Amino acid sequence: MLAPAITREADSVGTPTRVTFPYRPPGRSADGKRCPVLVVGAGPVGLTVALDLARRGVDVTLIDEKDTVSVGSRAICWAKRTLEIWDRLGVAAPMVAKGVTWNRGRVFLRDGPLYSFDLQSEGGEKFPAFINLQQYYVEQLLAEAAMAMPGLDVRWKHGLAAIEPHADGVRATIATPDGEYVLDCAWLVAADGVRSAVRRAIGLDFQGQVFEDRFLIADVRMKASFPTERWFWFDPPFHPGQSTLLHRQADDVWRIDFQLGRDADPEREKEPSRVLARVKAMLGPQAEVSLEWASVYTFQCRRLARFREGRVIFAGDSAHVVSPFGARGGNGGIQDADNLAWKLAAVLQGAAPPSLLDSYDAERVQAADENILNSTRSTDFLTPKSAASRAFRDAALALAQDHPFARALVNSGRLSLPATHDASPLNTPDAADQNFAAAMRPGSPAANAPLFDGNRSLWLLDRLGKDGFTVLRFAATSDEHRADVAPMEKLQGVSCVTVGLNGATGMLRDAEGLAARRYDAGPGTTYLIRPDQHVAARWRRPDLDAIRAALARAQGRAA
Amino acid sequence: MSTSLAAHPNIPTPDAFYAELIELHRGLSDEQSRLVNAKLILLLANQVGDLGVLRAAMAAARAGVA
Question: Residue A487: its pLDDT value, please?
């Protein structure tokens, strides 16, 4: 058996919250019928990819060996891009309502503040930089949406027992409390986490770096007056020589992450009395604290060599794992789902050749490498491996209060941002004479902006990607808009959105000018946006042939 | 002659620079690391050249230490 990628060494259980979902025994209809997509694992990534596929008209079967949400200290920080993806699927609002919104982080050194940072200083966004929400709530909200979704068959307590890959599909043997059955699928998405049964069955292993330092992660319930910010301490008086991270979650649950060092004894450190003693050292002896969950972890930053093996596609933790500093695990997985669903739908619906899925591997391996690089650097900063490394770390911290340059070197986590797929084969590069700003270059996730449709306020991303590709145009007058839009509407499977410049009406109104600024747009500027809201191509003047060519390229149909 | 230190971040990719700096010391003994660091300071000092700036940097480095 492979070593699990994030190694939970010991647990201490309080009173976990659990909902259970209805188990249905395999019916006669479960046998013999081939399904287009089988998703294995109903965690946040599996549920997201299944929902997205079903919304794009693909019949999906989603199986999970359990009939509950996950328990314990799992992902909590969900980034703006994740919320935008969930919003496209109609599930962001309850997440934001239940979660704790934050944009600001503070870093402390010993007993004093070092500096603070704001992850969303510009404003003009529908979603905050992050919400904190326990993974069990995320799974519950996604699962409820999935079970209500037509075309999506969620099967709880149906676990993968064996797989048999073929050239044109995968035969899965599925185990239930009422025995096994066989299910044939055209494509199998492995979203079954760090200990992926699919990965084990195919015999693949991770490559990358393993860290020896141990961390205690405690979820505690308490009434506390800390602001809803990410607080990080280096060498605090209550935990000398180590670091501590504090996050607020829903229901007055707080995540506290104590660095323990290499030599800590995981069995001893997870004892509730010892965990609570650490928490009380931090908060004072009068603090009324109860322990919801505590685990001792070590971390790894590793990935599979490739994320697609024939008709089996890996997404989320089954494909890559990172240390938690930066919230790049869960958020990276949701972006995998976002990247995969439209491509798989296009292939199944005949709009694209199967080779389009090679771009999933290219783009998400690049993103995983970016996440792994950032997480590795953060973990290296927090756990120096040599005297020289420790000396530089201490020097950067010592300079940071008085010298802003040194704050850029202090690394308590580089928080999750979506990857820009610069080298993607789906991009049509900017023509040399277009003089576009770099920000929204091909491969970028599309920026959001507040707009008006008549008197109704809406967000640009509300109009991008839901039904396939979008041509996003900017026009100075409604006459120009009408003249240009007519030929665009002949493009098959493409919707057209026009934003008026300088407050022009008769189309979407960019009242604050943020859309024009973020897209570096003038009259005639045209973007081709992929179904996952990434930029495929852009031009200063609309040209139907160029749009057709870019569309073919972005669908993997380029010659 | 300028005697003030650059206060603003002046390194375009601070994380990449920092990773290279740590990598520079991989496999060295503590004594070797000290030698490499001292050589690095002298090289950078020569690059800066301005004695006023070097004095300001020396004072900032010494501040708060014994």
Answer: 76
